[in-house]
Task: inverse folding
């Protein structure tokens, strides 16, 4: 009998590890191990400041490993060499600089090149910067006397005479004429952070670049964080040396001490910093956004309380530090920092986004805050602002009033008069994104749909005429077209309370409506992301399609609390109910799915997810053990007490004030209810969702004698991608576990 089982599982394993001979069937090797389904991206397009042309690059025919950068006029198609590969070879070196990123100075006379990037938590924001003067073709390295690959966020001053950057938590200014380097802050340390941010600001407020040149180039406004009161969380590396070593991360967990944050203004030549005179405990407030307020005399600063339900907007005097509170937004749940603030009418008004009407809309606000005028209105959400063109008097934004799983470009007059114009043509039904030129005349347009890999175009605006196609992904589309599949289906189910839940379904290619099929639910379920989207899903979608080919129906559902453009109430009903409301919506929708579709077998339900989706998977398995028979939780937050303060307090409140929302919102509280098959996957080097939570969950499952399977990836971060073969191994194990624990196929 044992020998027969071994033969069975070997055959099972070979079905997805050995390359398929049928080109219509997917395998893990085809998805993750070959370039067959890798798409092209629109790369290297950078609009020049006047918006009348853009730059791009292509491999040099003369210099090995070099690129030439071209200036292209989209109106005429004229192409000129802006920078040749020879110009990018430093003196005394043979090879050109490898360009990882590049940008232009405000006057477009200088090119700033980023190279030798090093990862700082999630992104390569630390490296070397070079400047190429287009007039003289001189190439020089910034911060040459500072440690290699230590510079961050290099920016040239508006007048083009200086550059500023951060190195080792201090801000430096370099004279571009004589290359004199001067530190304008000198007290930076591991815990005193100038010009950039700590881990949690970066993760949860998307704050990285922490300084701003004044319009007159005479001053720099910057953030300073004092993390000395923040406790280190220690990760341990057991595999990369003979003896283990610890990796400390300044990580404020929910309810614990935060970094003290302040904003100040200092002269470009150094001197004393003028600190803004905020009231209250700097360790219990946040400063997530700061910009110069259309002058070199004042700053516009957003100041959030610790609960993140009050955003005070201040004008800060750059000379005295005095603050004037011109606007205060409040919400019973939470508020997000506002991006895309632009000054209009020579600094008399600025643009703002608010949910005060119950929907996310664009407003203009007078400089004194006394006059608030809506630009957009109606029962829909503005998803994103793409451009505010104050010269022509329009704001371009993304929205989808008729279908919340799609995304289109609209524009409306800045004065709010007239009806919005949808600029995206009807033949681009799906998800669209744009990079619009500064003058609003041109754009790169990316289009994708659930079964349509991305296409990119250069277009004119506002007529949306295609100038040329940049990316067609024809090879990827041809390979995808050969696969055995049925069309992906979108649907809705209605749960208690008359709540409509969006869903997406992938069926087996040989689907028989007279049979009943098992379902794998893919879930996220938290406020950071949606899963039901009309856009190409890449390798993860292809993996789901592969599972459908093996006999599963794959479904994903978006319940309340996900950031769908369905209004404030939809998004914020999860406040202090995270883990509770979202898991309930998923479970109730799963029940309704079983009722709605006769071909679904409710006795064969599995669920999987990553990060917040891993948490949702645990909640499903523990709270609704009679619904879900198998779960695969990757990098889950098992106990929300252990997650970072900004994220968790935003949605659950402060644990000392709202203890029940933390206890009832944590999957670990209900671990004793586990009945089905559970696989837990986690990287031990996860600086985001700490392995600690999974270890605590393991102890709880052991306490109640619950069977489970555990897979740990040594030193891998939250994405579990580091190390050769990691991604292939992970998806191999997920596939194997599902096949072994949930019978595939209709019956």
Result:
């Amino acid at each position: 009998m044992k020998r027969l089982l071994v033969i069975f599982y070997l055959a099972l394993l070979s079905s997805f590890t050995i390359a398929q001979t049928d080109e219509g069937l997917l395998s893990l090797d085809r998805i993750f191990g070959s370039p067959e389904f890798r798409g092209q991206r629109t790369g290297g397009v950078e609009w020049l400041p006047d918006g009348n042309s853009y730059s791009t690059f292509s491999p040099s025919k003369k210099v090995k490993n070099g690129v030439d950068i071209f200036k292209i006029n989209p109106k005429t198609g004229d192409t000129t060499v802006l920078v040749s590969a020879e110009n990018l070879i430093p003196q005394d070196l043979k090879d050109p600089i490898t360009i990882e990123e590049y940008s232009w100075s405000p006057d477009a006379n200088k090119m700033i090149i980023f190279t030798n990037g090093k990862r700082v938590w999630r992104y390569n924001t630390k490296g070397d910067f070079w400047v190429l003067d287009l007039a003289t073709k001189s190439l020089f390295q910034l911060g040459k006397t500072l440690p290699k690959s230590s510079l961050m966020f290099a920016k040239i001053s508006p007048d083009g005479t200086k550059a500023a950057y951060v190195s080792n938590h201090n801000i430096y200014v370099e004279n571009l004429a004589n290359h004199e380097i001067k530190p304008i802050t000198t007290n930076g340390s591991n815990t005193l952070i100038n010009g950039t941010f700590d881990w949690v600001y970066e993760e949860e407020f998307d704050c990285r670049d922490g300084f701003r040149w004044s319009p007159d180039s005479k001053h720099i406004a910057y953030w300073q964080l004092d993390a000395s009161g923040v406790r280190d969380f220690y990760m341990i590396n057991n595999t990369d040396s003979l003896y283990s070593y610890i990796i400390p991360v300044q990580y404020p967990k929910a309810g614990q001490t935060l970094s003290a944050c302040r904003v100040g203004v200092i002269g470009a030549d150094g001197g004393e910093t003028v600190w803004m005179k905020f009231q209250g405990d700097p360790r219990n407030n946040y400063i997530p956004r700061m910009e110069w307020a259309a002058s070199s005399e004042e700053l516009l600063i957003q100041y959030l309380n610790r609960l993140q339900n009050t955003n005070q907007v201040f004008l800060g005097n750059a000379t005295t530090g005095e603050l004037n509170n011109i606007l205060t937004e409040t919400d019973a749940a939470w508020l997000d920092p506002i991006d895309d603030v632009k000054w209009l009418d020579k600094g008399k008004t600025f643009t703002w986004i608010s949910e005060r009407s119950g929907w996310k809309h664009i407003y203009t606000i007078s400089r004194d805050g006394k006059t608030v005028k809506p630009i957009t209105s109606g029962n829909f959400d503005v998803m994103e602002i793409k451009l505010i063109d104050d010269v022509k008097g329009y704001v371009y934004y993304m929205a989808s009033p008729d279908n919340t799983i799609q995304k289109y470009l609209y524009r409306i007059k800045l004065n709010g008069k007239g009806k919005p114009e949808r600029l995206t043509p009807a033949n681009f039904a799906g998800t669209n994104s744009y990079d619009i030129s500064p003058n609003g005349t041109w754009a790169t347009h990316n289009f994708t749909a659930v079964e349509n890999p991305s296409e990119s175009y250069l277009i004119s605006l506002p007529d949306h005429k295609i100038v040329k196609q940049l990316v067609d992904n024809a090879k990827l589309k041809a390979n995808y077209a050969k696969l055995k599949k049925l069309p992906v289906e979108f649907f809705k189910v209605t749960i208690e309370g008359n709540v409509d839940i969006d869903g997406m379904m992938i069926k087996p290619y040989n689907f028989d409506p007279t049979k009943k099929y098992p379902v794998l639910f893919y879930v996220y379920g938290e406020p950071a992301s949606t899963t039901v989207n009309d856009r190409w899903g890449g390798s993860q979608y292809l993996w789901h399609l592969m599972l459908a080919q093996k006999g599963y129906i794959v479904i994903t559902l978006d319940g309340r609390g996900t950031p769908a453009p369905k209004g404030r109430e939809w998004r914020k009903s999860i406040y202090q109910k995270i883990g509770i409301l979202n898991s309930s919506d998923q479970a109730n929708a799963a029940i309704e799915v079983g009722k709605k579709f006769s071909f679904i077998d409710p006795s064969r339900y599995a669920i999987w997810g990553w990060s917040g989706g891993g948490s949702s998977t645990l909640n499903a398995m523990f709270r609704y053990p009679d619904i879900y028979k198998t779960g695969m939780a990757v990098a889950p937050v098992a106990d929300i007490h252990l997650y970072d303060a900004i994220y968790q307090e935003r949605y659950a409140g402060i644990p000392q004030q709202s203890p029940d929302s933390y206890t009832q919102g944590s999957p670990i509280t209900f671990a004793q209810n586990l009945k089905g098959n559970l696989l837990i996957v986690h990287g031990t080097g996860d600086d985001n969702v700490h392995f600690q939570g999974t270890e605590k969950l393991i102890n709880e499952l052991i306490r109640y004698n619950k069977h489970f399977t555990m897979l740990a990836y040594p030193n891998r971060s939250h994405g579990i991608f580091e190390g050769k073969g990691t991604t292939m191994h992970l998806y191999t194990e997920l596939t194997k576990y599902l096949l072994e624990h949930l019978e595939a196929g209709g019956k």
